[in-house]
Each structure stands twice: as structure tokens, then as C-alpha cells.
Amino acid sequence: MPSFVDNSRRRLLKKLAMGVALAPFAVSQLHPATAGDAPLVTPDDQTAKAFKYVADATKSAEARPGSRCGNCMLYQGAAGSIQGGCPLFTGKQVKAAGWCNSWTAKS
Ligand code: SF4
Fold first, then answer.
1. Could you say which architecture CATH assigns to the domain 33-107?
2. Mutate which of 45, 83, 100 to test ligand 1's pocket (most atoms within 8 Å of Cβ)?
3. Distance from C-alpha of 45 to C-alpha of 42, rounded to nearest angstrom
4. pLDDT of 31 over the 60 cut
5. Pocket of ligand 1 (CB under 6 A)
6. What confidence category does residue 35 fall into, taking pLDDT thresholds of 50, 70 and 90?
7. Which residue has the higher pLDDT, 25 or 41?
């Protein structure tokens, strides 16, 4: 298997481990709503800051061109949705046009 796949998996696992470490922040912000009406992640969210989340990927100097939540492996929104869940942000939604430094291409 090509090494870029191994590196991608390694990066994803590392970032997921970081997400687990930040889970207390997410748990403290749990919302009883279902995913469909869960609130959007806000810029002042501690987890958002940790992962450098932005609601508009084009506003991030670090985002690879074309990368956004909507084409991230972790995005849980339906195809064509404008926002959806992400396991890094329990109880909240991210914008499909958003981005964070855990972005991993859908395989
Ligand atoms: S880029 Fe991926 S991991 Fe990051 S917030 Fe968006 S869906 Fe979640």
C-alpha cells in the first residue's frame, strides 16, 4: 500500500486521539438536541480553537485548496448538506464549507 495512505491513517489516528483528549470540552458543551437541530460550532468553542476550525475553509491559510468538511472522512452530514455532525464536535454541527486541521480526505 502506498506510504501516503499509511501517513494519512497515522495522521487521522493521531488526530482522533487528540479528539478523545479534548472530549471533556465537548462533553461540557453537549446539547440534548438531535444532530439535525444541534447548534453550529462557534469560533469561541475550545475544541474549535484546538483544531483551528473555521466555518469557511477559504478563510484558513492552512487549508489545502478544495479541502472542506463536506469532503472530509469524518463529516457526518448527508451528501449535499450545508451542515452536519463531526465526531470531534459532539452535540454540534460543522458547516460543510468549514475546515479544521483534522481534515482527512474521504477514501
Ligand atoms: S474538517 Fe473533518 S474533522 Fe474537521 S471539522 Fe470538518 S468534518 Fe470535522
1. Irregular (4.10)
2. 100
3. 5
4. no
5. 53, 69, 72, 74-75, 86, 88, 94, 98-100, 102-103
6. low
7. 41
Joined together, the cell numbers standing for residue 67 give: 479541502
pLDDT at 29: 47
Cβ neighbours, 10 Å, residue 93:
25
Annotated domain spans of the chain: 1-31, 33-107
Q: Binning pLDDT at 50, 70 and 90, where does residue 43 land?
A: confident
Region at 67 (left for phi over 0; alpha for psi -120 to 50; beta for the rest)? beta
Q: Which three cell numbers stand for residue 66?
A: 478544495
Q: Which residue stretches of the chain are H helix?
A: 3-21, 23-28, 46-51
Mutating to test ligand 1, I would choose from 22, 53, 69 the residue with most ligand atoms within 8 A of its C-beta, which is 69
d(CA 95, ligand 1 centre) in Å: 9
